[in-house]
Specification:
The chain folds into 2 domains: 105 residues, Arc Repressor Mutant, subunit A (Orthogonal Bundle), CATH 1.10.10.10; 189 residues, 3-Layer(aba) Sandwich (Rossmann fold). The chain contains 13 helices and 10 strands. The protein has a 7-stranded mixed beta sheet. Helix 9 links the parallel strand 4 and strand 5. Helix 7 packs across helix 10. The protein is globular and about 65 Å long.
């Protein structure tokens, strides 16, 4: 047998060896832990782990060759996320077991602090964008997906949930307030939260013009400030502006009353990186499975989903996630 044929015969073993090698380094294990519910670029990971870019690139190459991380190009940048284990593939069981063990690890305090710093930098960039572009933001947003393109699908999903007029609603990031009249007609009390004073003023003008007396506007950080929980929490094209969307979902789920619902309208994953500059997007949409996985981790149950294809190449996902009723009674404010 020639050397080439001998090597080919051992390729399955080589694949397992690459997986074992990739998991045999403490830094790479910590990278996998940091990527549990997040995606980072090479420079961000180099900052988080206080190492050089070339060294981090090497570690990521090893992880990628072992199938432990997946890559996604956004413009000139490459972002890394954890690859899900494929149980039917060679090494799938080992892959899954490795991730389970990694998830049981606690990241060192210094690494957690630097992750928080990266998230803070992302959040600051997003807030600065809205402060600078509030007046023109809606026109820019309409280039991708304006409310008119998904309003009917969202309302169909909302109305199917059967909330009564006694129920309450909370909209995170209402933009210019275009969806607030729909919520005001369907709920007893509506709270709208935004951390941008400029955007909140646009929503306030809308409420005044339409006489929405049951809508309360609050200048607040949805992840850090106190505000009332609601039977229905709505996020329309907002999640991609959060620095850490998985963590944001976990915190927002706490604001959903027992038996209530979280409604998310978002872009499906795409590669049109111009959306970062034009609309201040921190994330280029989301994989459907990721949203479901994050919601389940937050204690929510995935419900009905609707998808809307747009002519400009984008696709919108309208998702419903339910919060279990721990009282075993009717859902708050629901006809059911």
């Amino acid at each position: 047998m020639n050397m080439r044929a001998s090597h080919l015969a051992f390729q399955p073993v080589d694949a397992l060896a690459a997986l074992c090698k990739a998991g045999g380094d403490p830094l790479r294990l910590n990278v996998l832990r940091a990527l549990t519910n997040d995606s980072f670029g090479v420079l961000e990971l180099a900052q988080i782990f206080a190492t050089g870019q070339s060294g981090m690139s090497h570690h990521l190459k090893v992880l990628a060759q072992a199938g432990l991380v997946a890559t996604r190009r956004e413009g000139n940048a490459i972002f890394y996320r954890r690859a899900l284990a494929q149980g039917e593939r060679l090494g799938g069981t080992l892959h899954a077991a490795l991730l389970d063990e990694v998830d049981a690890l606690a990241l060192p305090d210094a690494i957690q602090a630097r992750i928080a710093e990266v998230h803070s930098q992302r959040a600051a960039a997003s807030q600065d964008f809205f402060a600078r572009t509030a007046a023109s933001f809606q026109a820019q947003q309409d280039l991708i997906a304006g409310l008119a393109q998904y309003r009917d699908s969202l309302l169909a999903l909302l109305d199917a949930l059967g909330f009564t007029r006694a129920a309450t609603a909370l909209e995170i990031g209402p933009g210019d307030g275009a969806f607030l009249p729909e919520l005001a007609r369907r709920f007893r009390q509506v709270t709208a939260l935004d951390n941008s004073p400029a955007m909140l003023e646009l929503a306030r003008a809308r409420c005044t013009a339409e006489g929405l007396v049951n809508v309360e506007l609050q200048l607040a950080d949805a992840l850090n400030d106190d505000y009332p929980a609601a039977d229905c929490v709505v996020l329309n094209m907002v999640l991609h502006h959060f620095a850490a969307p998985a963590e944001a979902l976990k915190q927002l789920a706490r604001q959903v009353n027992s038996g209530g619902s979280l409604l998310i309208t978002e872009l499906c994953s795409h590669n049109q990186s111009w959306a970062r500059q034009a609309c201040g997007d921190l994330w280029l949409g989301f994989e459907q499975d990721d949203l479901a996985r994050w919601a389940i981790a937050a204690g929510l149950t995935p419900g009905e989903s609707l998808y809307v294809g747009l002519r400009n190449g984008f696709q919108i996902q309208v998702r419903h996630f339910a919060k279990p009723d721990h009282h075993n009674g009717p859902r708050a404010g629901s006809r059911i």
